[in-house]
């Protein structure tokens, strides 16, 4: 119990941690992300127009040559591949959630229409069956 702890006081505090380069690094700029999204969605609409990561990188280099973006903003092909994987997964998830919401809306509309038609049919059968039941009562006597 009287042993000394080998680490200095406050060693676990966040400001004293030495993470090296973890979490740091270059991020893809918003402008480049917009171009990448455009390339991705173009290929998503028509498979013939699909861009490979290499094609996307080449197009970004052409944009840099035209002065649209800065050359330092261009990501590597490896980074673009990673971005495509993340964006594709997120895109599919959002698309399936939208489809689920639309499906639920359609089901609610269909159920509402079925209930309305059931009410209408019940009213119609009640009107048509009322005279029959009246006749049935007279036949019973």
UniProtKB/TrEMBL annotation:
<protein>
    <submittedName>
        <fullName>8516_t:CDS:1</fullName>
    </submittedName>
</protein>
